[in-house]
Amino acid sequence: MAETGTIYLVGAGPGDPDLLTLRAARLLERAGLIVHDGLVDPSILALARPDATLVSVAKQRSKHTLPQEDINALLVREARAGRDVVRLKGGDPLIFGRGGEEAEAAQAAGVPVEIVPGISAANGAAAAAQIALTHRDASSIVSFVAGQCKGLKDQDWAGLAGKGRTLVIYMGVKTAPQIAEKLMADGLSPDMPIAVIENGARPEMRVLRGLLAGLPGLVEAERVKSPALIVIGDVTARDDARIAQIATEAAE
């Protein structure tokens, strides 16, 4: 009987292969089987060894190549057959990546599992857009929210965004109208600055800025597509005059 392999839940980061951890890159180079999300950039998959088997389990809203239960079963089955399996996920496996579910399935089956963290979509996209998610003068709290969570209207988002806070919304393109309506109903000012980061940390990245009340119109007018993040808070609109003042003071 073949020795049981290991399931590696690996974060691919926001898209740029230069942002992979060394551990992630080394696992990709040696893995015989890579089960990957649809949003993993082709340049990262190109790091796999030439004879590796690549299996896409791409997920789109309401349309999955494989249901999550089948993905769990695939990982466990291949590991029990003696193969080391890299489960490659965009961003970080444990931030809206269902890595926790897959780790639990492996543990329940008695299969060794290792989690390799990645730069999250929020961290990578914000850095590429030069938006500081925290700033001494603007924000000391950051919250991550899934924009496609069940019962969106029933979620209590009061206090997640506002003065001194930053809210980052994943998977919110399709539900932008409901998100804006929900936040304003929970007391957030319609004039709160926002940014939409499309294809963060990739060559085709776009950063669109506006106000909360105009979020739905901005997404529609600019035809924003996933992957995209919505960042809400004063950090998205740092005062240009203040930046210019700092530069002047430094030059004196």
UniProtKB/TrEMBL annotation:
Pfam families: TP_methylase (PF00590)
Protein name, entry field: uroporphyrinogen-III C-methyltransferase
Family assignment from sequence similarity: Belongs to the precorrin methyltransferase family.
EC number: 2.1.1.107
An individual GO BP term: cobalamin biosynthetic process
Keywords assigned by UniProt, alphabetized: Cobalamin biosynthesis, Methyltransferase, Porphyrin biosynthesis, S-adenosyl-L-methionine, Transferase
Organism: Erythrobacter litoralis (strain HTCC2594)
Protein's pathway: Porphyrin-containing compound metabolism; siroheme biosynthesis; precorrin-2 from uroporphyrinogen III: step 1/1; Cofactor biosynthesis; adenosylcobalamin biosynthesis; precorrin-2 from uroporphyrinogen III: step 1/1
Gene Ontology MF annotations: uroporphyrin-III C-methyltransferase activity
UniProt cross-references to CDD domains, sorted A to Z: SUMT
